[in-house]
Amino acid sequence: MCLTAYIKRLACRVMLIGFCIMISMSAKCQYKITDTLPMQAIVYNGDTIPFSTLNYVYVHCTLTAAQKAAAAKYNRLRNAVYVTYPYARKAGAVLNDINAKLANITEKPKRKSYINTREKELKKEFTTPLTNLSIYQGKVLMKLINRETGNNCYEIIKEYQGGLSARLYQTVAFFFNSNLKQPYNPQNEDLVIERIVQEVQRMYGYKEISSVQRL
Questions:
Q1: 51 Cβ neighbours under 8 A, 6+ residues apart
Q2: What is the pTM for the complete model shown?
Q3: pLDDT tens digit sequence for 117-147
Q4: What spatial distance separates the first Cα and last Cα of the chain, rounded to whole Å?
């Protein structure tokens, strides 16, 4: 083999080796690029932490008979509060105003005259809508009037119409499985009603009346 041919073959081998090196380097560069994955991140206390949002998981189940009964009971109470709270609110405002005015009237004839005048106002305002309430809604209304005034309905009737009228209304309420003397306890048995009232207040922008204003 002549020297010229040997040099040519050596040059071809060098070129082939160089080409292989270039392909290898190109492959490495390509590998580095594809190995970088973009992802979301947040900065928490100065540290960058990757995060991702999981897909929603929907769970469906069938309610038991007891759960359906509890839901129906709650919905009935919630509907009654939504219906009666505006009436209790208005009645409470009138009754609180009457109490405030009566505190400055000491003469019995004037007190009776004033009470009769305001009683007509109450009847005109509430007789028609209240007659459309169910017995259950009437019970809830008495609770809410107690909430707004700080007095149960028996005490209110006794103050304005006398003990005989109060006992008569109490007897009628008894036949309807109700009670004019029922208290309002927002921390215990009336906790659910209180939460629904607060829901109504947020929904319609009612402002809470302080206990000082109620008395």
A1: 40, 41, 42
A2: 0.64
A3: 887 877 787 778 778 888 899 889 888 988 9
A4: 123
Residue 25 clears pLDDT 60, i.e. is over it: no
What's the 3-state SS for the chain?
A: CCHHHHHHHHHHHHHHHHHHHHHHHHHHHHHHHHCCCCCCEEEECCEEEECCCCCCCCCCCCCCHHHHHHHHHHHHHHHHHHHHHHHHHHHHHHHHHHHHHHCCCCCHHHHHHHHHHHHHHHHHHHHHHHHCCCHHHHHHHHHHHHHHHCCCHHHHHHHHHCHHHHHHHHHHHHHCCCCCCCCCCCCCCCHHHHHHHHHHHHHHCCCCCCHHHHC
